[in-house]
């Protein structure tokens, strides 16, 4: 059953306008006004069903979070997670993240998360990978000069591709972990995909990079 065309999903997203930003492009350079407090702004692209952003919102009341997810039937789940978490520092956007510079101003974002992004394994789809250089250009524009990107994935090929792409772009690799769950990190908030793949015994790759290079 396809939920995408279900009117109740549209109604649900509109009813929760305190969490779901209805006109995200209208808030360029003024995202802080959507939150109770002005504090660092962290952005997740491809939020999925929202376990990460809801958990991070709870763990970090000193940070404002925005999660972008393009699939309506999926972001409905994220809204429910944020409601359950009763956290006031998370906002969600039902959009494609391809035009980030139309949504966020220069230096407006402090940190960016790419969690288990679609790998797009075929070479002909390379441009769709969220670490393709055209995306890196956007990230560089909206991130503060000392801003960072944290990427987590189970996909070794996407991880290797991303490290090479960051490096070719002149970025600095701050930290690399080849098996995130080898040692427990009490601050790590797992995503839905992360739990699924680490539950099967697969290693989770994580890196933190910046544009300082
Ligand atoms: N981050 C979640 C997790 O780790 O459980 C979901 C991972 S899922 C593989 C990738 C998600 O990113 C999908 O829900 C997809 O719709 C979303 N996505 C992919 N490209 C996107 C884009 N350009 N803009 C917004 N969302 C995107």
Automatic annotation (TrEMBL):
Reactions mediated catalytically: guanosine(46) in tRNA + S-adenosyl-L-methionine = N(7)-methylguanosine(46) in tRNA + S-adenosyl-L-homocysteine
List of residues binding S-adenosyl-L-methionine: 44, 69, 96, 118
Pfam families reported for this sequence: Methyltransf_4
Entry-linked PROSITE patterns: SAM_MT_TRMB (PS51625)
UniProt-listed SUPFAM superfamilies: S-adenosyl-L-methionine-dependent methyltransferases
Enzyme Commission no: 2.1.1.33
Region (Interaction with RNA) location: 124-129
Coiled coil (UniProt feature): none
Family: Belongs to the class I-like SAM-binding methyltransferase superfamily. TrmB family.
Function in brief: Catalyzes the formation of N(7)-methylguanine at position 46 (m7G46) in tRNA.
HAMAP family in UniProt: tRNA_methyltr_TrmB
Protein name: tRNA (guanine-N(7)-)-methyltransferase
Organism: Thalassobacillus devorans
Gene name tied to this protein: trmB
């Amino acid at each position: 059953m396809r939920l995408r065309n279900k009117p109740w999903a549209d109604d649900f997203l509109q009813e929760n306008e305190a969490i779901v930003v209805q006109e995200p492009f209208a808030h360029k350079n003024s995202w802080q006004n959507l939150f109770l407090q002005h504090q660092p702004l962290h952005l997740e692209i491809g939020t999925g069903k929202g376990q990460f952003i809801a958990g991070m919102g709870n763990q970090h009341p000193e940070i404002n979070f925005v999660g972008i997810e393009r699939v309506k039937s999926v972001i409905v789940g994220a809204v429910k997670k944020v409601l359950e978490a009763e956290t006031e520092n998370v906002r969600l956007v039902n959009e494609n993240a391809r035009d980030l510079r139309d949504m966020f101003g220069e230096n407006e974002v402090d940190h960016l998360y790419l969690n288990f992004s679609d790998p797009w394994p075929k070479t002909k789809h390379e441009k769709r990978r969220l670490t393709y250089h055209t995306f890196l250009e956007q990230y560089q524009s909206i991130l503060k000069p000392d801003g960072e990107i944290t990427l987590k994935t189970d996909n070794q090929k996407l991880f290797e591709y991303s490290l090479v792409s960051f490096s070719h772009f002149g970025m600095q690799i701050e930290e690399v972990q080849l098996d995130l769950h080898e040692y427990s990190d009490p601050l790590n908030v797992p995503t839905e995909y992360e739990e699924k793949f680490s539950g099967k015994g697969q290693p989770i790759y994580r890196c933190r990079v910046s544009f300082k290079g």
